[in-house]
Every structure is written in structure tokens, then in C-alpha cells.
Amino acid sequence: MTKAFLEVTMKISPENRAQAGGVYTKYRQPFLSSIPGAKSKNLLLRAEDVQVLHGFDSKANAESYLGSELFQKDVVAALKPCLSADPEIRIYECA
Questions:
Q1: In angstroms, rounded to a whole number, what is the distance separating the alpha carbons of residues 16 and 22?
Q2: SS3 call for 51
Q3: Whole-prediction pTM value?
Q4: Distance CA 84, CA 54 (A)
Q5: Which helix (H) or strand (E) holds 92?
Q6: What is the CATH number of the domain that holds 48?
Q7: Could you give the CA distance from residue 45 to residue 59 in angstroms, rounded to a whole number?
Q8: What is the tally of structural domains in the chain?
Q9: Measured on CA atoms in the order 2, 24, 51, 79, is the torsion positive or negative?
Q10: Is the pLDDT of residue 30 over 90?
């Protein structure tokens, strides 16, 4: 059961969205198969921003992912050239 969500909201210009989508696709399965407590990962597209919603079994595992090598060295590095501003990161707990 999903007990926490990690939401990453990013400002990405239209010309960089395909590249950012490729990053999502490339790292979705490694996230689901190697990150402790990972339950889901969904890409949400809006005109004003792009969000990635990660589901976890606990808030602690969501927080831990932010410090993981996959997030820091792979995902952040790959997305950096696509970003128009620093991403907003929020963690939500399910009641």
C-alpha cells in the first residue's frame, strides 16, 4: 500500500520536454526495481509544468530516495539541462 508520495515539480520549456520525458522513461524501471519501498512513478504533464509523482511505502523511504545515487547522480544530472528553474520537491504522507 502506498503511504507517501514524493512530488517533483519542474519548469521545463516545450522544446526540452521530449528530452525530460526520455529521462523519466530511462529511470522509471530502475527506480521501481532498486529503490527501497518504491511503489509507483507517474509523469504528469501540464502546460505550466511537469510533475513526477513517486509512490512509496513510507515517508522515510521517500526521503531516503532524495539522497540516493540514482536520484542525485543519475536523474538530477540528466534533468539539469532541461530545467528552466530549480524544481520544487514535496513529500506527502497518506492518512
A1: 10
A2: strand
A3: 0.94
A4: 21
A5: strand 88-93
A6: 3.30.70.100
A7: 24
A8: 1
A9: positive
A10: yes
